[in-house]
Amino acid sequence: MNIPVVFEDDWLMVLDKPAGLLVIPTPKNEPRTLTSILNEDLKARNVSYRLHPCHRLDRETSGLIMYAKGKSIQKKMMDAFRQKKIKKTYIAFVQGALSQSEGIIREPIENREAVTHYRVLERKRDYSVVEVKPLTGRTNQIRIHFKHVSHPIVGETKFSFRRDFVLKARRLCLHAQALEFTHPVTGKNLKVTAELAKDLQEFLKSHD
Fold first, then answer.
1. For residue 1, how many C-alpha atoms fall within 13 Å in the half-sphere facing its CB?
2. In whole angstroms, what is the distance from residue 200 CA to residue 88 CA?
3. Strand ranges, E, within 18-162
4. Would you say residue 109 has pLDDT above 70?
């Protein structure tokens, strides 16, 4: 598969994942995931290292996913994610019009603190384009938080019912746009970005 590499050096690789592809298998043990595709390619090219994901993205979410070239670098980056040292920025299309142009959603998930900052970038007729910065890293945090404030992400099927909303989408309208972090080896401060996925760009054009 032609999956764009947005950043790469001797230790890390950041890719622009397409929607619809798992990063790692679920309990159903799917054979084809982004990780398996990447490592099969490396093996076929007789490359010595293997790629290990440093965090997760939902199957339906497009955008940036970071891999480590080796287990020791993976541990350092996973620790950095856990310690909230890596800033993540998403673009989401959410149902309806948020009452505030900027805000913070604080709602525990599975009895653990969960905090999400958002800023409305554009208001459309039936939905809002929102920049989202999760300040904690709970599973499905962005999806759960926007459902909690009664503005679920357009295309959401897990945490809300499609039939409750006029606006439909072929997939969850959520894109991982940017990662900001300190490199674990060089110590450089880096910001990696990915432009909005093409299907989401088309959605914007066809839904004013």
1. 19
2. 19
3. 51-53, 62-69, 87-95, 102-106, 115-123, 127-134
4. yes
- Give the mean pLDDT of 12-24: 96
Closest among 145, 96, 141, 144 to 120, alpha carbons compared: 96
For residue 162, pLDDT over 80 is answered with: no
Select which of 9, 10, 41, 58 is catalytic.
Answer: 58
Residue 84, sorted as left (phi over 0), alpha (psi -120 to 50) or beta, turns out to be left
Q: What tokens appear for 146 in the block? A: 């926007």
> What's the pTM value of the predicted model, to 2 decimals?
0.95
Annotation says 58 is catalytic: yes
Mean pLDDT of 60-68: 98
* Residue pair 57/176 in contact by the 8 Å Cβ criterion: yes
Instruction: Round to whole Å and give the CA distance between 31 and 107.
Output: 35
Smallest CA-to-CA distance from 137 within 94, 87, 103 is with: 87
Q: What whole-number distance in Å separates Cα of residue 122 and Cα of residue 175?
A: 16
User: What is the rounded end-to-end Cα distance, in angstroms, of the chain?
Assistant: 32
131 in Cβ contact with 119 (< 8 Å): yes
Listed residue (76, 65, 84) closest to 8, CA to CA: 65
Residue 1 scores a pLDDT above 70: no
| Joined tokens for residue 207 | 């839904």
3-state helix, strand, coil in the chain (%, to 5): 20, 35, 45
